[in-house]
Write a structure and sequence with these properties.
The chain is mostly helical. The protein is built from 20 helices and no strands.
């Protein structure tokens, strides 16, 4: 693959695939200073671009970036120490760096990025800030991608992230790896981070491509490490959910890059090994009788995975699971998904009534999938003009190009039928 890339494309890919991992390791090596780590890593990457153009890209770009940035970070600490005459701080920090560098094998959390995610989800940080901050600083998502995940404005998310960093700085929250017994109180936020990273990879919020494989693969990797570390039912449920969704990847997009909806997918292309692994995790998670958002969503995905076709899907079971999920984790998006399931079971009018109720409350007005679902149910009910208006509204809100193409095809088809 690399031989077919231009140097600029290769550098862009290396940045995307390696920057987050290098950043997580560097924060640990530099004693938890986010700003210092970011500045040092940016300088190292700039140096890398210059060196790699003539010398070639190293076999392990992450290790190269960490090593180079680490020395740059030490130089920055030295400069700061000279400017502020804090030589004792310099000595302490250098000792800490060396100590951390030789202490990797003894860490309880066996992954730098997962370790940093747990650290960022500190109980002293507002829960509304923990997840956006971690997604931005650790996982590399943009403010726009994070805002899309929370159905919020990018400016609102940017303000939350700034407040989170200020809280860490002003309150002197240290970079301290939590002990295993401290992990459960941070688990909900950590699961949310991993899930939202997977979602952005599974269905990108904007851009020309439906998926970002690098993000979904990284989320699944983190999910596997987490389940090994802490076999909590919800952690198992999240990993199962990701595996079951990932199993459909090959069937979700046409050779031209267009979306293929679940009911139209060639299910022979689904990855049976991932389905079996995910279904086994669902079984173990539900056997605990601790029902939560992720293992219930995974159970719904498992029902879809068992069905040979959309018509053969057990919609009764899916509606029942969504009803339980709505009680366990109420949200307008869960209500929307339940409404669509009811429409599949009882007909479009039944689902339409529920979607209209959601929208009449003012919820999901800016969520393109709510209007897209409403438009499709109106079409199935034979109400072509209102359907076209709903699809037009969805089209005005959608930012991802494959979704826009799908909606535009629906809009043009409805216009032809009306005409």
């Amino acid at each position: 693959m690399a031989s077919m890339e231009t140097f600029e494309e290769q550098v862009s890919r290396i940045y995307r695939e390696n920057f987050g991992k290098a950043f997580a390791t560097l924060i640990r090596l530099l004693g938890g200073d986010f700003d210092l780590a970011e500045e040092a890593l940016q300088e190292a990457f700039a140096k890398g671009i210059s060196a790699w153009r003539t010398q070639g890209v190293p076999e392990n770009p992450t290790a190269w970036l960490v090593s180079t940035a680490r020395f740059k970070g030490i130089d920055m600490i030295r400069r700061r120490a000279r400017l502020t005459d804090l030589k004792s701080d310099l000595l302490r920090r250098e000792d800490e760096i060396e100590e951390w560098n030789h202490f990797l094998a003894a860490e309880e959390i066996p992954d730098d990025r997962l370790r940093l995610i747990f650290t960022c989800c500190h109980p002293a940080i507002d829960p509304k800030v923990q997840v956006p901050l971690t997604l931005r600083e650790v996982c590399g998502l943009t403010n726009e991608e994070i805002a899309s995940a929370f159905l919020a404005k990018p400016t609102t998310m940017a303000q939350r992230i700034v407040r989170g960093k200020a809280k860490i700085r002003d309150a002197g929250i240290p970079y301290v790896v939590p002990d295993l017994e401290d992990l459960p109180e941070r688990l909900d936020a950590v699961l949310s981070v991993i899930y939202l990273v997977f979602n952005e990879g599974y269905c990108a919020s904007a851009g020309d491509m439906l998926t970002r494989v690098d993000l979904s693969e990284e989320a699944i990797r983190l999910g596997r490490v987490l389940v090994e570390l802490l076999p909590d039912p919800e952690a198992q449920g999240l990993l199962a959910l990701m595996l079951l969704h990932e199993s459909r990847r090959a069937a979700r997009v046409s050779p031209e890059g267009d979306i293929i909806l679940l009911e139209d997918q060639d299910r022979s292309l689904w990855n049976r090994a991932l389905i079996e692994e995910g279904a086994a995790l669902v079984g173990r998670s539900l056997a605990s009788r601790q029902l939560g958002s992720f293992n219930l969503q995974a159970a719904i995905a498992a029902v879809h995975s068992e069905a040979p076709s959309s018509e053969d899907t057990d919609w009764n079971q899916i509606v029942a699971l969504y009803t339980i999920l709505l009680r366990a984790s109420p949200s307008p998006v869960v209500e929307l998904n339940r409404a669509v399931a009811i429409a599949m079971r009882d007909g479009p009018e039944a689902g339409l009534a529920l979607i209209d109720e959601i929208l009449s409350r003012g919820d999901l007005q800016e969520y393109h999938l709510a209007h897209a679902a409403r438009g499709e149910l109106l079409r199935r009910a034979g109400k072509l003009h209102p359907a076209r208006e709903a699809i037009e509204r969805a089209l005005s809100l959608a930012k991802q190009e494959p979704e826009r193409r799908l909606l535009l095809q629906r809009f043009e088809s409805l216009s032809e039928q009306e005409g």
